[in-house]
Write a structure and sequence with these properties.
The chain is an all-alpha fold. Helix content is 87%, strand content 0%.
């Protein structure tokens, strides 16, 4: 069993990497667009460019260790890989990015509501609690905040999820 002190040095590094991870979910869907449009050559070209930038983003680890790598990687993803990758994919595949960005805005806003709620609760409510009681407060609260955020900002996504779920359950029975 790992004691809290053993892994505590990695916590700030993973916090920084989580920022990149949130947006990589969006970025990973780019591959589906290239493949479905039969544009795998363009996908390969973009992959080469993105890989080069990602490696450059990891170079700060030489001077700043794990945190330098995390910050450099996250910066590379947010500043270049994600925006340029979306632009290149849209240009290569021949689609308009505006509807995609509009569709993603609601779920992103709902996610930000959840993150804000969990951070505030963690800071002001659950601070002195041990791990399990803290989880018993934060997980349901985060789920409730996400549901509220989705009801406020992502109604179309909720409706689509409901339709998909009903369709899947109908096929299963």
């Amino acid at each position: 069993m790992v004691t809290p002190a053993c892994g505590s040095a990695a916590v700030p590094v993973f916090r920084v990497l989580c920022v990149a991870g949130v947006f990589q979910a969006w970025g990973s869907s780019v591959g589906w667009m290239y493949v479905s449009a039969g544009k795998t050559r363009e996908m390969f070209r973009w992959g080469m460019a993105a890989s080069a930038v990602t490696v450059l983003g990891l170079l700060p680890c030489i001077w700043f260790g794990g945190m330098g790598a995390a910050v450099g990687y996250t910066a590379a993803v947010l500043v270049f890989v994600l925006p340029a990758g979306q632009w290149y994919m849209a240009r290569s595949v021949g689609i308009d990015l505006k509807p995609l960005l509009k569709t993603a805005a609601g779920p992103l806003a709902a996610t930000l509501v959840m993150c804000a709620a969990v951070v505030l609760l963690k800071r002001f409510v659950t601070g002195p609690m041990t791990l399990w009681p803290r989880l018993l407060v934060l997980v349901p609260s985060g789920a409730a905040a996400l549901a509220i955020g989705a009801a406020l900002f992502a109604r179309a996504a909720l409706k689509e999820a409901e339709t998909s779920l009903k369709s899947m359950l109908g096929r299963a029975s």
